[in-house]
Automatic annotation (TrEMBL):
<dbReference type="InterPro" id="IPR035906">
    <property type="entry name" value="MetI-like_sf"/>
</dbReference>
<comment type="similarity">
    <text>Belongs to the binding-protein-dependent transport system permease family.</text>
</comment>
<keyword id="KW-0812">Transmembrane</keyword>
<feature type="transmembrane region" description="Helical">
    <location>
        <begin position="71"/>
        <end position="99"/>
    </location>
</feature>
<feature type="transmembrane region" description="Helical">
    <location>
        <begin position="111"/>
        <end position="131"/>
    </location>
</feature>
<dbReference type="GO" id="GO:0055085">
    <property type="term" value="P:transmembrane transport"/>
</dbReference>
<feature type="domain" description="ABC transmembrane type-1">
    <location>
        <begin position="76"/>
        <end position="287"/>
    </location>
</feature>
<feature type="transmembrane region" description="Helical">
    <location>
        <begin position="268"/>
        <end position="287"/>
    </location>
</feature>
<dbReference type="GO" id="GO:0005886">
    <property type="term" value="C:plasma membrane"/>
</dbReference>
<keyword id="KW-1133">Transmembrane helix</keyword>
<keyword id="KW-1003">Cell membrane</keyword>
<protein>
    <submittedName>
        <fullName>Sugar ABC transporter permease</fullName>
    </submittedName>
</protein>
<keyword id="KW-0472">Membrane</keyword>
<dbReference type="Pfam" id="PF00528">
    <property type="entry name" value="BPD_transp_1"/>
</dbReference>
<dbReference type="InterPro" id="IPR000515">
    <property type="entry name" value="MetI-like"/>
</dbReference>
<feature type="transmembrane region" description="Helical">
    <location>
        <begin position="12"/>
        <end position="33"/>
    </location>
</feature>
<feature type="transmembrane region" description="Helical">
    <location>
        <begin position="143"/>
        <end position="163"/>
    </location>
</feature>
Length: 302
């Protein structure tokens, strides 16, 4: 009797849990699917309403319009270049520092770790940071995207915790064989950190790809350093006049020549959002397999 009651209770719980998770998935995915549908739908038809998760009149004119001027190609290149360089350098130098702070024989490890942890709770603020960047001569230079984010305190703690979970016997054996600290780091520690590096790398890449505020503060006067997200931000804050000019810059085609194709602020914003989100969505599936291992860093100790 108790067994039957327990089994019935499990079925009720599983059913409720499945329904609840389906609702969460629908609520989470619907905004993006709606944006995707609007981006591929005819702009004039979108104004009528009723577009949910499937386009009613398919078109690629919205995407052709946002790439018509050509500057988005350059902004896309700058965003990719910034993301790749920031991610690679951040992972390498953060892991190198994390390995140093994980060594028990390093007597300054606690002090340096405390200093980095304090930066997670206290910040000088925007104005001192701006004057620091200005005094360093980084304004309107590409390196302003790289240098300030070279090492992240949170990422440092995560990677250090993972390294401390590695068996000390491997490192000791390498030292007995005559390997130096840098050789141990490059040939042993760094390759073994692949799971946590995949997770942290995704966090760093998403942050570098999505940010636009540093471009606005430090490089807004240099169009050659404009990023895709910054251009998207400008598009999201514009009016119908900008959307109309986008059509005009496209060569007078579409709505200006009597065709049913046209652009509106809503269609331009939707297409820009899809273009900005697509690269990260393509990368995530390849790193997903490392998440279970990477997010459980430090859970197993020798």
């Amino acid at each position: 009797m108790n067994y039957k009651s327990t089994k019935a209770g499990d079925k009720v719980f599983n059913t409720f849990n499945a329904i609840f998770m389906i609702v969460i998935v629908v609520v989470t995915l619907y905004p993006f699917l709606n944006i995707l549908a609007i981006s591929f739908n005819n702009a004039s038809d979108t104004l009528k309403g009723g577009i949910y998760i499937w386009p009613r009149e398919w078109t690629l004119f919205n995407f052709r319009s946002i790439f018509a001027t050509g500057f988005l190609y350059h902004a896309f290149f700058i965003s990719v270049l910034r993301t790749v360089i920031s991610t690679v350098l951040n992972l390498f130098f953060t892991t190198m520092l994390a390995y140093t702070l994980s060594r028990k024989e390093y007597f300054l490890r606690k002090f340096i770790t405390t200093v980095f942890v304090l930066t997670m709770y206290f910040s000088a603020g925007l104005i001192p940071s701006y004057f620091l960047i200005k005094n360093l001569g980084l304004m309107n230079h590409f390196i302003v995207y790289i240098l300030p984010s070279m090492i992240g305190a949170f990422n440092l703690i995560v990677i250090r915790t993972y390294i401390k979970s590695l068996p000390d016997s491997m490192i000791e054996a390498a030292k007995i064989d005559g390997a130096g600290e840098f050789s141990i780091f490059i040939k042993i520690v760094f390759p073994l950190c692949k799971p946590v590096l995949a997770v942290v790398g995704l966090f760093v890449a998403v942050g570098a790809w999505n940010t636009w505020f540093d471009t606005f503060i430090y490089a807004s006067s240099n169009q050659n350093l404009s990023t895709l997200q910054y251009e998207l931000m400008k598009l999201l804050s514009t009016s119908m006049q900008t959307a109309t000019s986008a059509v005009a810059q496209f060569g007078g085609k579409g709505a200006l020549s009597g065709s049913t194709d046209s652009v509106t602020p809503q269609s331009i914003r939707a297409a820009s959002t899809v273009v900005a989100a697509l690269p990260i969505l393509m990368i995530y599936p390849f790193l997903q397999k490392y998440f279970v291992v990477g997010l459980n860093v430090g859970s197993v100790k020798e």
